[in-house]
Amino acid sequence: MLTPDELKEKIYLDEKSTSNPVLDAIYFFLLKEMRRSSCNSFMNQTKYKKNKDDVAWRCNTASCNYYQDYFSIRINSFFENFSTDLGFIIRVIIKYLTRQQIFSILEYFRVNKSLIYKIINKFKFLIPIGDYSNNKLGGPGMIVQIDESMLNFKAKNHRAFSR
Predict the structure, then answer these.
(1) Residues 6 or more apart whose Cβ sits within 8 Å of residue 61
(2) Domain limits of the chain?
(3) What is the pTM of this model?
(4) 68 to each of 31, 39, 43, 48, 80, how far by Cα in Å?
(5) C-alpha 134: how far from chain center
(6) pLDDT (0 to 100) of residue 25
(7) From the CB of residue 79, how many other CB atoms can be counted at a distance below 10 Å?
(8) Cα–Cα distance between 86 and 160 in angstroms, integer?
């Protein structure tokens, strides 16, 4: 398993490369398209320098009440209730996914503890709980007996030749 530092080195590419995996990870958690409920048409993703994300949704339907208004790209996404940098949130998730202890994540970033706990808890909420009800062997209150003699598939070593 990779350590967080090895993973970070793998993720960050040269500035000359055309794609950046960190941005790809951020866009994975964001919506790919957004439909405006008032005009029922899709909004465009445009550059917008007035917010910290530098990107926003914009409605370009002339008959819409919100024509050419900008909306945050965080709406209806994983990042909706966070006001911090998107890259910081992704870095916390990467550290958590590499099975680093929460204590060491807190020590590494040295920011508000409640923010890191909020990010990790929201991410845990997205992960489904494993359903093991369809297991074929055993379960609560069931005793299973396995014949181990059938599991030995190795050929015996040092067999004597018959002459």
Answers:
(1) 36, 39, 41, 67
(2) 1-30+77-128, 31-75
(3) 0.58
(4) 19, 12, 10, 12, 21
(5) 27
(6) 62
(7) 22
(8) 68
